[in-house]
Write a structure and sequence with these properties.
5-stranded mixed sheet, alpha+beta, 4 helices
Length: 124
């Protein structure tokens, strides 16, 4: 199991990447891959629960004026290390399914809280 590790010293979190994940990132357009990598790099790891199995999280980036939906298979262990195992292209419907399950890559905000605040605004 070849893993590359990225250490974010200011956050004290680790990312490890499986070879499958790296191969797929290398095979896509370099500019698109950079946008996806930046999106994943902004993952708010505190929203990813510690579990004994793999989890799927969705994301979307805009590249050349088109949305690109993707899913990342990952695992978070009790030491706050996230292992990125695989990345897949998904449809907008699949992304929305993950969104409704609160399984999206969020950037510093807990999506369940933002859903609640949006519901409160809608009912006000």
């Amino acid at each position: 199991m070849d893993l590359e590790q990225k250490f974010l010293s200011e956050l004290q979190f680790h990312f490890e990447m499986e070879e499958t994940f790296l191969d797929k990132m290398r095979s896509c357009d370099a500019r698109l891959g950079l946008r996806i990598a930046t999106h994943i790099d902004n993952l708010n790891i505190t929203n990813v629960p510690i579990k004994d199995d793999w989890q799927i999280y969705g994301g979307v980036v805009v590249f050349q004026d088109e949305p690109h939906f993707f899913a990342v298979q990952l695992y978070r262990d009790c030491y706050s290390i996230v292992i990125l195992d695989d990345i897949l292209t998904i449809s907008s419907d699949q992304y929305l399914d993950l969104y409704n399950l609160n399984k999206i890559i969020s950037h510093g905000t807990d999506t369940s809280k933002s859903k609640t605040s949006n519901k409160q605004k809608a009912t006000a």
